[in-house]
Amino acid sequence: MDSTAAHLNYWADESVTGQVASLSMALVHLVVWLYDHWYLLALAIAACWGTGTLVVRRLAKRASAERMALDLVPTRHFEPSLEEIFRRGVQLARASTAMPWWAPRRSKAVQIRLRADGTTPLRYRIEGPAGAQRLLSITPFGPDVTVSRGRPIADKAREHVVRAEFLLRGRLTAPLREVPLEPDPLQPLVDAVADLRAELGDLAEIRLDLQRAPKWTLRARRLQLMSAARRLERREAQRAARWLRQDAAGVEDSVTWQLQQLLGDRRSAGGGRRLVMPPVPRRVDPVEALGKLAEDDHLVRVQLLVMCASNVEGRAHARLAQLQAAFDVFGGRSRWAMRGWRLGPWRIGADQWPTRGSFERRWELGQCQPPRANWVRLEELTGLLKPPTVHCRVPLLADDLPTFTFGNPELLLQGIYRTPDGRRRLVATYAAETLFEVGVGKAGGGKTERALAQAIGWAHAGGGLMFLDPHGDSWPRARPFLAHDHVMQRIALVDLNAHGPTAQLTSWNPIGMHQGQIAHEVVEAAVDACAAVLGWDDVTAPRALTILTAALTVLVAVNEAACRAGRPEDQATVFQVRALLTDQAFRASALAAAGGLDGETHAWWDTVFPTLPPDAFAVVLNPLARLAANPVTHAFLGQPDGAYNIRAAMDTRMIVWVCPGGNGPTDRLLTALLARDLLRAVRSRRTLPEDRRVPFRPYFDELITLTGAAPETIAAMFEDFRKYKCHVHGMTQLLSRLPGPVRQSLLQNASTLACTAGSRSAIAPITAEWGDAPAPEVVAALDRYEHYMSLTVNGRRMGPAQITGPHLDTVFADLARPRQAAALERAARATAHTAPLDQLTARAAGQHARVTALLTHLAPGASPSAHLQPAAVDLGKKEFD
Predict the structure, then answer these.
(1) Model's pTM, two decimal places?
(2) How far lies 307's CA from each of 69, 379, 391, 482, in Å?
């Protein structure tokens, strides 16, 4: 029995051994076969790899198609904190994973696109998974950044395109340089694309893809770094031990050491060589060895792709070099470097095979396959996780500020802008958007020259304007550039600086009704003008206001009757107010002839007027006496049917040059009358449909002088004129010297705010409107004709930007016609219906007799009532203030 069992066990062992041997031989044969047919194995592996790659690409393409884009537009005062930027980075990292479970990792990324094509300084866009739209739409930046759904961008093909991929060079664990937020970290990139020209097809785009770090990849990288650190430490220890042994051997072999051994005590010195203890390898600190990879939190992988294009050879390569230099700003122990190799003048990179196909696939689909070294923490990307801030100097591009073209009625010349590449171009704003302008700066700084250039350009484009210059220096300066036939026919000159009997002067009747005015508006305009200059109001001078209003109401009614009778040449002027108040017979005839008066007005003259004390009229008559004593103002205001009609000038696109004269009390009253009449005329356009209101531009030089005469009127202009397509341009040396209401209206409604050099205290109110950027001392140091301006284009505030004011002799040199200046002067005076001063004076002196004759004709039976006896008036008691 035992022998049988042993025999069976023997054969069983032999069977197992045979099976093992057979299996081993089969494996050997398989290896030999595979060795002989290795290409079949290679083909199988390649087929598996290709199939897997194809599947991954298909899935990634499908996932990438479900992406959305958000455009981020910051406000001018966008200034985020580091915490806000960091929170935005956390949002981006979290949003990169909002993909379906089956999506490959290369499609799980969020992309930051910085794009410049010459139409915008730097467009900031976020692209990511469609499922992350809600997460990305609500930013930590609050209302300072507007987030809107981005539309697809369709680029035209450019002739020359260069591509580049950037990777991190240096120590893998070393961080990028910590770039401060002021100035903006994006400033180098903005400067690199500042001179892009859209007409040349220039394009520059930067795409930064963020992807959350895979855990297994991060662990493998850490193991690799720790192993490398330990090997380095062991090599350092071995090197130190080797040098230590060499040093010890060198000491023992020296003559000094041998003499010490011979002369010394061998027992104390010891025998043989010294025992050298090699240094023990230092323990590797994980934090020191891993650096920024030591912690899992806020660690991402990034992919940085850049493409530059142009239709001009060489510009795309130059742009790429500028962007490469801009990225050097972020370099420290780790830096951004272009991927590829350089062989002499050639560079092998993303533009050549075999990497070009991968670059274009990632570019088109928004996929992220970063290099192994591109590990960063969110803190290192602070400058790229936000749009440009308030600390970023953004250049003005052609689409931001249109280029001025001569003769275009839609554009208004502003000055000369110097582009970052050194080119100079005439820039403009859209006339429809330039509602009000304010220019501030010292005398001779270029305010008036710029206003003249703008007005001349507007006149040649067919626009109507009024240039009000108290000193009259602007007219000789502008005359050679307006001496053109198509402009000459539309110019009227109202020059009140004329002296001498042969001086030519036009005329104006502020209370004349021959031009179709509304009676009560004419009365209000004249009364308000006098009240503004004389400081009257319902508290300080109620009686003076009442007397002047009643007197002008009667005279205006008389003038209406004269026009109805076909005798406009017999209308009353403001100088008949004296006769109306002091001459009993004239007053009775005027009241009888003024048939349009209501019962309340007649009742006032019947009951209140006789009770007035004798000295009540002096405060009203003294200013009129001053006007009558001046030959120029007497001749200008003493004509019954004056030719000056600012409302007709507006509607017919006339160019009216008004030079009121000096700055005395009489001049201020005359200026106030003109300003109030302008306000009345503009407001009278309310009866016109909006599409029939012709744009008109009054230019006010020396606002200090004008507002001294009519502060409330000028303030009302800046508040109301926009509704009636009348746009005011004002210039002043000191904003602080303007009355409070005028100053507030100017700053509140100014579409364009320009400032030249001046004292720091005078400029500070303007720079304060810009947030002290630039600072007052910067503006104060400007050269002549240099301005800082804030402009309104397409509803957005541009600037402040430094713009050179246009000089007529350079900008409009081709327009100058100095030989035609005399002809222009004659034509402008003829259009204004001027006449010699002595002739107008004689006619004004005889006007009272013609008005009396008219009243006799209109009311032949009128007789003075007993209670309308003239009061004795002492004109010497009140002085004109």
Answers:
(1) 0.77
(2) 19, 25, 26, 50
